[in-house]
Amino acid sequence: MLYISKKSSVRGMLEGDSVVLGPSTIGEGSLIGVGVIVGYPSYKKVKELMAGGKVGLESYDEVSEGSKIGSNCVIRSCSVIYERTVLGTGVQTGHNVMIREDCVIGDGSVIGSHSVLDGNVKVGRNVSIQTGNYLPPKTVVGDGVFLGPFVVITNDRYPASRRLLGVEIEDNAVIGANSTLISGVRIGKNSVVAAGAVVTRDVEPGKVVAGVPARVIMDREEYEKKKEEYEREG
After folding, report:
1. Residue among 132, 154, 139 at smallest CA distance from 199
2. What's the per-residue H, E or C state across 59-109?
3. Which of 14, 20, 60 is nearest to 34 (CA)?
4. How far apart are the first and last CA of the chain?
5. What are the backbone angles phi and psi of residue 219, rounded to the nearest 5°?
6. What angle do CA 102, 194, 143 make, to 5 degrees?
7. Which is nearest to 8 in space by CA: 20, 101, 18?
8. Cα 134 from Cα 221, distance rounded (Å)
9. pLDDT tens sequence across 67-98
């Protein structure tokens, strides 16, 4: 079903049936895939509509505050972007991505298929988030960060508690596949978390950590030398 709010501004292209709610804006040169929903209202609003028996796109359109999608973005099929979320220029999503309300995604960043940004997440510029990542509320990701497939970030050390602490990943850090970052940790600038690691404490800038729990095994400088040797072998 194609539903475009009269309050929205769509300057990009639509592949087919999509939904654009509220005063959402879609920048010039952007592509919106089939089955994408832009400006989906928060759960609190939907719950209120359910209580009043007013569920449906027209009701959602009335209450949505809209999303902002910059120019030259690619939002692939079946992705859902909630209200009050802002995507910069050249942002791409894979298929079946969910970005909840109040997220900010910087220019040139990529959000891989089946990833979830679960509301109030800040992602910097030129970030590469691979398939199947989970970023909970209060996560902050700096510029140039790489998150490998199926990274899990947490925000609650003693679930389910009422005290949530976000994880901060500083610029140019590399987080390996299937690693887990425990609530409240800071991953320093230019640091590396090895695949499968469980990070329970802060990682200093420029360090490489591995294991369960993660411990320092080398500096980023040594890591880069090993990477160069590996690439030459190919």
Report:
1. 154
2. HHHHHCCCCEECCCCEECCCCEEECCCEECCCCEECCCCEECCCCEECCCC
3. 14
4. 48
5. -95, 160
6. 35
7. 20
8. 29
9. 999 999 999 999 999 999 999 999 999 999 99
How do residues 117-169 score in pLDDT, each as one tens digit? 999 999 999 999 999 999 999 999 999 999 999 999 999 999 999 999 999 99
**Contact present, 219 and 207 (Cβ < 8 Å):** yes
> Is 121:139 a contact under the CB 8 Å cutoff?
yes
The model's pTM: 0.96
Q: Tokens 């596949």 correspond to what residue? A: 177
Beta bridge partners of 80: 37, 98
In the chain, the largest separation of any two C-alpha atoms, in whole Å, equals 65
- With CA atoms as reference, report the closest residue to 11 among 3, 20, 2: 20
User: What is the C-alpha to C-alpha distance for residues 154 and 180, in angstroms, rounded to an integer?
Assistant: 8
Distance CA 190, CA 167 (A): 16
**Strands 207-210 vs 92-93: parallel, antiparallel or unpaired:** unpaired
